[in-house]
């Protein structure tokens, strides 16, 4: 009995400790991204340790920006009160300045020489103060033709690099980020404008509208950046809002984005850089995203406050700041407070592994990565980091397994290249011997078959005795390779082939489609590994095939086509002969190719599908006795009919859903009234 009680107590202790590690008691959940770009819940990465609502007795109102100086003070652009507030991390008041100069400060930045740059929307200037609040310089609207006579200068955000170049985001100026030299005040030009986001509708209008009509349309202009920051290396980070816009960019000196990352939020408002060159992006709705320096998502946390004033949530997040201890400060302009987030042990473990790896200590980084995986087996980035470390140590087999677990295609391809090279070195002679042996056996078989015709005689007798018509019809498809026109003629006028044989090949086509979808090489697969949707795949395959064949038959029937449905069905299926013949080889080969040979697979698949398309074109033309021009017209009309059919089915689906919802709502209303009589 004592042993049982001790075991229960031990289990409870372990469970409690595990629960503390897995998830802290927070008002929000923390997510990471798996290898397919989907959010998965993970352990809490940051917890709120303190909330600052004032500096001493000084409250801030509608504050829009915040920075932390090297001396550890928090600088807040107190927008509603037209000043800059300075306080300690514990909320003590230090100083306030700018009351006599500023009207609406919306952005600030502390430069490498400890000057405070403040962007003021109402004054339409950027003011420069010392840390103590003494005004030393200001920049107004740049003069000169290059800036643009009608270009706006309404500074919202500002940043400064070590060369004393000032970067200014101006409201309504879509030309790019404004660059001014801090020493001379000279306008240096526009930097890294956002690309114009043109919708498909706008592109279509440009094709069909006249110049007069286009002049009456609103100009399509790129969106303006919403915030900017600069790291110790001089790289510029900026965030933007809008559709089809790069929400987060990491820009080099030339203004080229070197980051391929898509922020899963339409309203980013702030960007901050940590000590590991990790990037924090704050969104207006309260979500905070942490990325590595290469753009891999580590954590997403925070969220929208529902009115219950819970810590870790925001009404309107406006700024982020990171101190020397990697503590994250988040400013809520609606609640007028700063929340201090501290990393948990789990986040520290991830950061430790990332730090070791980025500094080239691959052997030391393996331990932390493995511990992260032990705590959370769904943290795919940890597998990627472990795979990179193993690859650097030339442990290619283990790296291959880790990269596959991480769904990291590039790393998997590189590791597989090395594994394949090692295998080829060890087995090349055996492989050559097997290939030569197969070629010799095929040649010997062909020679004796031509001399004796044993197999042909046996098959002829077997066919004559048992009348294997079905198997003959099935085998008849082989003639589509060498003599497609004769084969199509035989199908239509000599009753070669049959509906049963075509149905057999259609099932084979379906099976090959499924194999191609789920068993193509990992590098080239387009589905989530381990997840199967056979029901949907089956419905889509047979539904699409029926739609194509049915639409084509109906269109050819009303356009004097001579093909019967039976012949059209057989012809369509038999036209996939190149697919039946060559696709199994491409599926097989895809499992031994890397990204470097991707063009070979793409070329082979293109040739297969092009060959099938040509045979289908020939089938429609020959079976209906059309000219080439008529055949092209029929194909376009068939496609149009398919689109109309799909739209009709979609409309019917919407109507049925609405009718069902109406019936359910009426029934629920009746039940409610009956129960409350």
Automatic annotation (TrEMBL):
Location within or outside the cell: Membrane
Main location: membrane
Superkingdom as given in the UniProt entry: Bacteria
Domain Yip1: 480-648
GO molecular function ontology, one term from the record: ubiquitin protein ligase activity
SUPFAM superfamilies: NHL repeat (SSF101898), TPR-like (SSF48452)
Signal peptide (from-to): 1-19
Database matches in InterPro entries: 6-blade_b-propeller_TolB-like (IPR011042), TPR-like_helical_dom_sf (IPR011990), TRIM-NHL_E3_ligases (IPR050952), Yip1_dom (IPR006977)
Membrane topology term: Multi-pass membrane protein
Transmembrane annotation, as ranges: 428-448, 499-519, 539-556, 568-587, 599-620, 632-656
GO biological process: proteasome-mediated ubiquitin-dependent protein catabolic process; protein polyubiquitination
Cellular component GO terms held in the UniProt record: membrane
Keywords tagged on the record: Membrane, Signal, Transmembrane, Transmembrane helix
Designated name of the protein: Yip1 domain-containing protein
């Amino acid at each position: 009995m004592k042993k049982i009680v001790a075991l229960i107590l031990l289990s409870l202790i372990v469970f409690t400790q595990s629960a503390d590690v897995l998830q802290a008691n927070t008002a929000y959940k923390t997510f990471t991204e798996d290898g397919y770009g989907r959010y998965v819940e993970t352990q809490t990465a940051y917890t709120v340790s303190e909330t600052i609502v004032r500096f001493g007795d000084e409250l801030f109102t509608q504050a829009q920006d915040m920075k932390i100086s090297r001396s550890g003070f928090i600088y807040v652009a107190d927008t509603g009160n037209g000043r800059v507030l300075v306080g300690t991390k514990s909320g003590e008041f230090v100083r306030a300045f700018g009351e006599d100069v500023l009207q609406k400060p919306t952005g600030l930045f502390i430069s490498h020489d400890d000057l405070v740059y403040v962007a003021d929307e109402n004054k339409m200037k950027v003011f420069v103060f010392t840390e103590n609040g003494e005004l030393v310089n200001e920049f107004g609207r740049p003069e000169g033709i290059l800036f643009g006579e009608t270009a706006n200068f309404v500074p919202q955000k500002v940043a400064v690099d070590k060369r004393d170049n000032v970067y200014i985001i101006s409201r309504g100026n879509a030309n790019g980020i404004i660059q001014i030299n801090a020493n001379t005040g000279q306008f240096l030009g526009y930097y890294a404008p956002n690309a114009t986001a043109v919708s498909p509708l706008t592109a279509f209008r440009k094709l069909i509208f006249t110049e007069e009509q286009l002049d009456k349309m609103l100009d399509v202009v790129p969106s303006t950046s919403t915030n900017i920051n600069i790291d110790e290396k001089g790289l510029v980070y900026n965030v933007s809002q809008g559709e089809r816009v790069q929400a987060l960019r990491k820009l080099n000196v030339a203004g080229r984005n070197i980051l391929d990352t898509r922020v899963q939020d339409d309203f980013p408002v702030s960007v901050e850089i940590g000590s590991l060159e990790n990037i924090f992006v704050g969104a207006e709705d309260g979500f905070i995203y942490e990325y590595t320096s290469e753009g891999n998502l580590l954590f997403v946390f925070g969220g929208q406050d529902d009115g219950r004033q819970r810590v870790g949530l925001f009404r309107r997040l406006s700024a982020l700041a990171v101190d020397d201890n990697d503590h994250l400060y988040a400013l809520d302009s609606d609640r007028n407070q700063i929340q201090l987030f501290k990393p948990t042990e789990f986040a520290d473990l991830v950061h430790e592994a990332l730090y070791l790896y980025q500094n080239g200590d691959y052997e030391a980084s393996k331990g932390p990565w493995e511990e992260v995986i032990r705590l959370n087996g769904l943290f795919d980035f940890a597998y990627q980091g472990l795979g990179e470390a193993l690859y650097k140590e030339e442990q290619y087999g283990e790296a291959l397994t880790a990269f596959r677990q991480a769904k990291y295609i590039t790393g998997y391809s590189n590791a597989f290249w090395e594994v394949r090279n090692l295998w080829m070195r060890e087995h090349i002679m055996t492989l050559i011997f097997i290939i030569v042996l197969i070629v010799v056996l095929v040649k010997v078989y062909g020679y004796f078959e031509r001399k004796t015709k044993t197999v042909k005689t046996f098959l002829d007798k077997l066919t004559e005795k048992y009348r294997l018509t079905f198997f003959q019809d099935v085998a008849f498809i082989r003639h589509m390779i060498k003599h497609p026109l004769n084969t199509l003629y035989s199908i239509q006028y000599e009753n070669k082939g049959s509906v049963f044989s075509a149905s057999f090949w259609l099932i084979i086509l379906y099976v090959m489609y499924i194999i191609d979808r789920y068993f193509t090489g990992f590098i080239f697969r387009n589905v989530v590994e381990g997840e199967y949707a056979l029901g949907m795949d089956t419905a889509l395959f047979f539904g699409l095939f029926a739609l194509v064949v049915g639409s084509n038959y109906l269109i050819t029937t009303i356009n004097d086509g001579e093909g019967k449905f039976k012949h059209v069905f057989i012809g369509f299926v038999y036209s996939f002969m190149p697919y039946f013949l060559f696709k199994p080889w491409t599926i097989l080969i895809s499992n031994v190719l890397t990204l470097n040979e991707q063009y070979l697979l793409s070329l082979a698949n293109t040739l297969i599908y092009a060959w099938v398309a040509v045979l289908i074109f020939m089938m429609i033309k020959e079976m209906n006795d059309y000219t080439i021009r008529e055949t092209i017209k029929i194909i376009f009309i068939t496609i149009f009919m398919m689109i109309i059919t799909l739209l009709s089915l979609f409309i019917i689906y919407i109507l049925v859903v609405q009718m069902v919802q109406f019936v359910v709502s009426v029934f629920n209303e009746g039940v409610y009234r009956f129960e409350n009589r």
